[in-house]
Each structure stands twice: as structure tokens, then as C-alpha cells.
Amino acid sequence: MTPGFDVVVVGAGPGGMAAAIAAEAGRRVCLLDDNAGPGGQIWRGYRAETAGKYPHGAGFRRWAERLQRSGCEVWMGWQAIDHPAPGLLRLERAGERRDVEFRNLIVATGARERFLPFPGWTLPGVMGVGGLHALVKGGLDARGKRVVLAGSGPLLLAVGAGLASAGARVEGIYEQAPLARLARLAISLLGQPGKLLEGARYRLRALGAAYRTGVWVVRAEGGGRVESVTLTDGRKQWRVECAWLGCGFNLVPNLELPRLLGCRIAEGFVAVDRMQQSSVPGVACVGELTGVGGLEKALVEGQIAGLAAAGRIAEALALEPRRRRLQQFAERLERAFALRAELRTLATAETLVCRCEDVSNAALEGCANWRAAKLHTRCGMGACQGRVCGAAAEFLFGWENTSARPPAFPAAVSTLAAGMDAFGLATESTNNGPHSEMPPASVFAD
Amino acid sequence: MSESCSITVNGKPMRMAAGASVAAAVMLAGEPCRFSVSGEARGPLCGMGICMECRATVDGVPHRRTCQLACAEGMEVVTG
């Protein structure tokens, strides 16, 4: 029998954990996530017992304990892959399929880093800024490693401080945005959530790492893995040796599931009303999906959506002023860290744009749009399904990717076949073993 | 993370903290995770399960995203 809930929450980061408080009002709630434990990216790998030692750890402990007390069911390791019928979500874990029914759905799938192609960006040792931090949080020993961080966004500072604390030698942190814009941001915040930035900057100064603005990466070089990075301030170029380069350009929302559900997207984010409701009845979206604003915004929006789903409208409305302030903060961040045009010229003709199908920049020239690029070059048709090159192509060429079709995430062939039962297309799924991470057959046709 | 476990990466024994990701073990072993369709060596990129660059064969199962997978005693990881 298909399990059913009043509220299903997809994504157990801060937004999803906060949304799960709908369970406190007696609603039957299920919180699910692809990861091994709740916390999302900012609280990645945190455990309630030891969280106090880590940045924002007290907040994690408070929400984790509240989640545990709420009576919410927590399903970890499950990936939402399809929305086969209204009120129904299809999930997969390690080759196993499960459907779940919902009355209300709260989507809190968060964001990923935007990666931009430059010569050498595919070398091992070149990672995202948050990517490198996640790996270090996941047990990668950073002690004594020479690290350069480059790109854009508040994450650079937070990760720089985190890596320095983990024992890395942070050779430099290079923000592409000009100082003047960041100074305006700092003034406009007047000690609001920007305190976080200041805190990170202070810690960095104490740890002796340089933070420079108006500087961006030109190329990475090395034999078989990254050994150095060349940077520029637009006038001169210089080289810095490093074992790891963390490079990411702000965050982009994970819109695959909202798109599949049919939620209206406006200017790159899910359009929502005051109660976080999307254009699809019964579907709310929270956190980075509605504007990249970080932890506080996700928590407030998650609570609003959770309260709304539980019918506690007055309490949800009481949070609205904070929500508005945090959304304005997100908009200010977006303006301050807007990407400079020079970043569009980093990739040479040979530089790969699509890392899954190894499609070069030159091969994409002459393509009119994202669809044409997919048809003619296979750009965006590999294992990541355009999650990396899609955001790059949008910035480089202005191509918008509006397509949405199941599966929302690579799934086992057996899972997909099982979904065809209703049409008599497949009787029994042919299970060839635990193809837990096996993308659709078409992805690996090579 | 005081407990630890032993795994192998391409036959090389590695001692990892309990709960450490397999991707971290592969990086510490100095191995690329996979080779791209044109033969480039690749390592982890996003660290959060979306880029698919860290795929490797774990205990005989191909295409595991090693950044989303915790090390477990006796695990055999084969890259490339």
C-alpha cells in the first residue's frame, strides 16, 4: 500500500527541517532527503551531540531536537525522482522504488554552486568552494594543504575560515566582485545577517589569510592534477601554487523538482506568495528555491510553509516581516555579487563546457539555444543532466533551460520500468543487482 | 569521529575515520575517481552529489557517487 501523509517535505536542510514543524500541530508529516542525515549543506555531517563545536551548530541542535520531538517521519537516503500523478511522489533509494502520497508538498531542495569553465577547470583538485568544504567536512585531511579559493559570494569567506580552522594553508581568497559594490552591501546591511560576513572576515584575519576583491581566476595548470592557478585583477596576471583550488560563482537553486511539478519560475527562482505557495495548488517552495539568502531565510520560510500546511495561518503571518527583510537581503546579495562580463571570456575554444559529454566551447558556437546545443553536441545530456553546464551556459550564452521531464534525478532502469506497470509496458522489473546510482540507460549509451 | 575503518582504494589500504566519505578516501589515496569520455582524469567537484564526477565502483557496484557514500569496514573501491 502506498504510504500517505498530510505533508511531505523534500529536502532536510534548514528550510525542510523548519517546515517539518507542521507535525507539531498534529499533521502527519514525512521529511525526506537524499543524504545520510538531516542538515543540508550548511549543517552537513552535523550530529546533535557534537554540533556545539561547529559554526551555527547550536541552531542545528535546536532544530534537530525539535524535529525528533515533533513526531515527523524522517526518510533519509531517498531521492525524489518523479511526480507521476497529482498528490503522488516517486522516490528511489539504492535501486529500491517507493511512492508516497501527499496532500501538501513542501519543496526545500536548496541550491548548488555555479561553476564556470576556464582552462584547467576539469583537473582533479579543482573543486567547488562549498564542494571542497563538504569534502573536508567528510573526512578529507586538509592539514598543511595549500588552498586557493576563488569565485564569488559569501561562501568564499565562510569556507576560507572553515578550511583554515581545519589546518589548511589558505594562500588567498579571491572575490570577483569589486570592493565598491561589497562596501555598499556592508553599509546597507547595518549589522543584519551581514554580521555573518563580518564574523568570517574577522576570523580570517586572525588566521592570516588574504581576502582580495576584484580578482578572478584565469586558468589552472598541472600535470594530471592542479598545481597552480593564474589570477588577474584585469591589469596584471600572477600565479599561485596550490594543491587544491576551490572555485564557484555564487549559488543557483535546484529547480529540477519544482519544474517537474509545474511551478512557475520567475527570474531564476520559484515564484511564491506570502505563504510560500507556488503556482501549483498544494505545493510550497522554501529557502534557496525562492532566492539565495542562506540559513536564516530558509528557516523562516520553512516555518511559514509548515505553519501554513498545518492551517496555523496567524502564526505564519507573524513571521512575514522577517521573511520580507531576509528576501531583501537575498536581493542585495545578488546585486553585490553579480558576475562581471570578463568571466564570459575565460573559456578558450578547447575548454570543455560540458564535463559529462566533454563538449568544448568551440562545439557550442553557432548553437542557437540550449535545446539546439543538446541536439547537436550532447551538451547537458550526460550523467549530471546539465546540472553543471546548464548554469554555465545560461551565464555564458544566455540560454535558459526550462525543460523538465522525469526522472528528476538519474534512476535505475528497474525503477523506471516499474513505473510503466500502469500502461502494461512492463510486467516485472528486471533487477540486475543493486544499481543504486545507475542513471537511465540513455545516459550511459556510450 | 574517533572510530576508524579500513578500506581499499584500487587495492591500496586506507584507514579512514568512521563516517568519512569515500570521495575523501579516493582523494587521499591520490587517485582520480573516473576518466571522462575523452580520457581526462577527473576528481570530485561539487561534493554534494549533483555533478557525478566522483563516480567509482564500490564493492562491485559501478557508478556510485562516492561523495554521498560513507566508508565502511572492508569496503573495496575501484576507480577509473
In brief, what are we looking at here?
Chain A has 446 residues and is of the alpha/beta class. Chain A has helices at residues 14-19, 57-70, 129-137, 155-165, 179-189, 195-207, 256-261, 295-309, 313-318, 320-336, 361-364, 370-377, 389-397, 413-418; strands at residues 4-10, 29-33, 73-76, 79-85, 88-93, 96-107, 111-113, 126-127, 146-152, 169-175, 211-213, 216-221, 228-232, 237-241, 244-249, 251-253, 265-266, 269-270, 283-285, 352-354, 359-360. Chain A has three domains: 4-112 and 252-333, FAD/NAD(P)-binding domain; 115-249, 3-Layer(bba) Sandwich (FAD/NAD(P)-binding domain), CATH 3.50.50; 347-446, no CATH class.
Number of strands of chain A: 21
What is the N-to-C succession of helices and strands of chain B?
A: EEHEEEEE
Give the strand line-up of the largest sheet of chain B. 2-1-7-5-6
Low-confidence segments of chain A = 422-446
Instruction: Outline the low-pLDDT stretches of chain B.
Output: none
Radius of gyration of chain A: 22 Å
Give the % helix of chain B: under 10%
CATH H-tier superfamily of the largest domain in chain A? FAD/NAD(P)-binding domain
Main β-sheet description of chain B: 5 strands, mixed
Percent of residues in helices of chain A: 25-40%
Fold and architecture overview:
The complex is a heterodimer of chains A (446) and B (80). Chain A is of the alpha/beta class and 446 residues long. Chain A folds into three domains: 4-112 and 252-333, FAD/NAD(P)-binding domain (3-Layer(bba) Sandwich), CATH 3.50.50.60; 115-249, FAD/NAD(P)-binding domain; 347-446, no CATH class. Chain A is built from 14 helices and 21 strands. Chain A has helices spanning 14-19, 57-70, 129-137, 155-165, 179-189, 195-207, 256-261, 295-309, 313-318, 320-336, 361-364, 370-377, 389-397, 413-418, and strands at 4-10, 29-33, 73-76, 79-85, 88-93, 96-107, 111-113, 126-127, 146-152, 169-175, 211-213, 216-221, 228-232, 237-241, 244-249, 251-253, 265-266, 269-270, 283-285, 352-354, 359-360. In chain A, strands 1, 2, 3, 4, 5, 6 and 19 form a seven-stranded mixed sheet that branches. In chain A, strands 8-15-9-10-11 form a five-stranded parallel sheet, with helices on one face. In chain A, strand 13 (228-232) and strand 14 (237-241) form a beta hairpin. In chain A, helix 3 (129-137) runs parallel beside helix 4 (155-165), helix 4 runs parallel beside helix 6 (195-207) and helix 5 (179-189) packs antiparallel against helix 10 (320-336). Chain A starts with a strand and ends in a 28-residue tail after the last helix. Helices cover 9% and strands 35% of the residues of chain B. Chain B is globular, with a radius of gyration of 12 Å. The chains are: A alpha/beta (446), B mainly beta (80). Chain A binds chain B through residues 34-36, 41, 44-45, 112-113, 115, 122-128, 130-136, 138-141, 224-225, 254, 352, 355-358, 382-384, 387-388, 410, 433-439, 444, 446, and chain B through 1, 16-17, 19-21, 23-25, 27-28, 32-33, 36-38, 40-53, 55, 61-65, 67-68, 70-71.
